[in-house]
Fold these 2 entries.
Entry 1:
Amino acid sequence: MLDDIDRRMVETLVEDARISLKELAQRVGLSSPSASERLKRLEERGVIRGFTVDVDPAALGYTLQAIVRIRPLPGKLHVVQDLIQQIPQFSECDKVTGDDCFVGRLHIRSIDELDTILDRIADKAETSSSIVKAQPVKRRLPPLL
Amino acid sequence: MLDDIDRRMVETLVEDARISLKELAQRVGLSSPSASERLKRLEERGVIRGFTVDVDPAALGYTLQAIVRIRPLPGKLHVVQDLIQQIPQFSECDKVTGDDCFVGRLHIRSIDELDTILDRIADKAETSSSIVKAQPVKRRLPPLL
DNA sequence: TGCGCCGGTCGATGTCATCAAGCATTTTTC
DNA sequence: GAAAAATGCTTGATGACATCGACCGGCGCA
């Protein structure tokens, strides 16, 4: 699926996506045009969805994170989903199997803010929140086969 | 904390971190050197932690995702944490308050693989897994104040 | 009022991305 | 099994870009 050079390119770009093509090329042992061509194909194949920036929420004042499980009351599933999407402090949310229909990550500046946000959901769903104390595994790639 | 130009720079880079300085500059209405200077300071301030690539796990064969809650048995907390860190299919894991000590995201190619991985934890912790059916909120930034 | 600082522009210079041409190796086809 | 075609690479030329120094205007402050 990915050969060794592709893997090293992806791993290199995960560390610094704004590296020059020239440097990327020499790190994986290719010429710039070849690296450019491979990069283009990784994007075309959908392996690389895009290039982005890693922003630290804490540096923006969001010193707290919570993982919130949400179980909409009967008939409220769509309302709740819309509500979640409209609350920008949810930086991600998954719809999952099981009783807890949604699991989301909330970035907040205080416990107060958590309370305010959950109040908006409280009459449409049961919620269960856990404050993030540490991140033993920071965002990383699964193994590149 | 962030002025309007900073915000637009960050938002632009979230969309495409490999854009040229020149284009970034003209999108926010600055000259290239000014944009370069601001970018450098956003990194120095820790607002921007780095530039990275958005890899699609599905394109690598990881067509399934699970959210796993993990409650280590008494005395097993550190062993479990080490184990989680060593399992590369965990793309992220948070240590949280409450009974479920850890919440992680697992990328797997089949239900079989889920079973295999959870077996490695089973004698040290209780786990509760939910398969991700959809992602109503894809990874996004909290509001930039 | 005058001084110094901050954040900006402009223009020159060296680095980089990109394109076309060509080459070696592998795959396909008859 | 040999000719043809397709891959994937390199090199060198050209135009675009990042970066640096010099300079400028507005603002806070003694």
Entry 2:
Amino acid sequence: MDHIDQEILQLLKNNGRMTSSEISRQVHLSVPAVSERIRKLEESAVIDRFTVKLNREQLGQQLLAFIMVQLEKPEHVEEFRKVILQADSVLECHHMAGAYDYMLKVALSGTKELERLISDTIKQVPGVVKTNTMIVLSSMKEEM
Amino acid sequence: MDHIDQEILQLLKNNGRMTSSEISRQVHLSVPAVSERIRKLEESAVIDRFTVKLNREQLGQQLLAFIMVQLEKPEHVEEFRKVILQADSVLECHHMAGAYDYMLKVALSGTKELERLISDTIKQVPGVVKTNTMIVLSSMKEEM
DNA sequence: GCGATATCCAGAAAAATTCCTGTTCTTTTC
DNA sequence: GAAAAGAACAGGAATTTTTCTGGATATCGC
């Protein structure tokens, strides 16, 4: 992980489909050298994976929110996990230290769908005793 | 945006570097047809951009946290924005409805760096009157 | 010093992409 | 309902990229 690797990662963060030959021109290395570096970054798990960032608004998910969840007892975690992993509108779920046990980041079409998610999905899980929802007005920064 | 486009997006989410020829085999279309569809998805901004998901732990950022920030008056927003955009450890910054004005998602090496970020960077911004930091213990889901 | 490992480059073969053309299918319009 | 216009697709050629070799150079540990 030298400074050239960092340059390569920076370029790939901006454009994950940038070709090795284009990268090679920017970092002043040969094409095989760049390909080999990328391969090793993947192998060493520094690069988790290549992906595509979609525009949520274009996909009808105009509403972004954070939902904090208090789970009564650890015995309910498995059921909770299953529900969360299946819910497409839940982008992230973090186990937290503090007053609440879980923090969810969710993307939905609007408040109707948010209401359904909270009432019909999250609060239906046994052990969920309290939630606290915070609505996002706008996002000034959003990387990975 | 038909079901084939959705298939293509799903494939690209799992592997952003999947070649058009590989995709064409999976969705039973010709290579030019797939390329054209991807081009249009980019043009219509459904695809924001291609990128790479890095492994934060491998990069020495073992600590993930959310910081909620209360900003006294809107006149301090510009200064706040500048500081946030420059801070590499701040992954996300959302303007919120509710008790706090901003929600930050930050990734750092540890509590020392977190302390510096809060005390020396965020709280130094004029107008920041209150913060509330929540530490992530583990993440069971994290997409985009 | 000396071997072992790693990194690099150059060139060739394989693969993928792009571009072009012709065809089919859908949609529009009369 | 039929003809025209437009969009989407498949096939093939030219270009670019990737991958795979072989060999040179540098680095590290002994």
